Amino acid sequence: LVEISPETVMKEAHSLKGGAAVLSAQALFGAAVELEAIGRSGDLAEGESALRKIKVEAERLAQYCNELRGE
Q1: What's the distance, CA 64 to chain centroid?
Q2: Under a CB-based contact definition with an 8 Å cutoff, are residues 13 and 35 in contact?
Q3: Closest Cα to residue 54, out of 24, 22, 29?
Q4: CA separation (Å) from 67 to 17, 51, 60, 63?
Q5: What's the whole-model pTM score?
Q6: What pLDDT was estimated at residue 1?
Q7: CB crowding 9-46: b at 16 or more within 10 Å, else e
Q8: Cα 39 to Cα 8, 15, 43, 50, 70, distances in angstroms
Q9: Rounded CA separation 18/24 (Å)
Q10: How far apart are CA 26 and CA 29, in angstroms?
Q11: From the centroid of its chain, how far is CA 28?
């Protein structure tokens, strides 16, 4: 298991949030906002749950992109 600092979680979630905003991926954006807040709080106890949401939303976005390409 790799330990990640709350600051790293916050920074990475912030980057993801920006990318999601550019793509108008609102559900992914919301999940990244949640993870960023978790990192900012310093308590990563809820981080796993937020990561699961991000994974689901990222997969939905990938599926949507594939459909746009006709795959």
Answers
A1: 17
A2: yes
A3: 29
A4: 23, 24, 11, 6
A5: 0.88
A6: 57
A7: bbeebeebbeebeeeebeebbebbbbbbebbeeeebee
A8: 8, 13, 7, 11, 37
A9: 10
A10: 5
A11: 6
Phi, psi of 3 (to 5 degrees): -90, 135
For 11-69, the pLDDT digits (tens) are 999 999 999 999 999 999 999 999 999 999 999 999 999 999 999 999 999 999 999 99
Residue partners of 32: CB distance under 8 A and separation at least 6? 13, 14, 16, 17, 20, 54
Half-sphere exposure of 24 (CA within 13 A, CB side): 2
What is the token pair recorded at 27? 């559900």
- Which of the four pLDDT bands, split at 50, 70 and 90, describes residue 6? very high
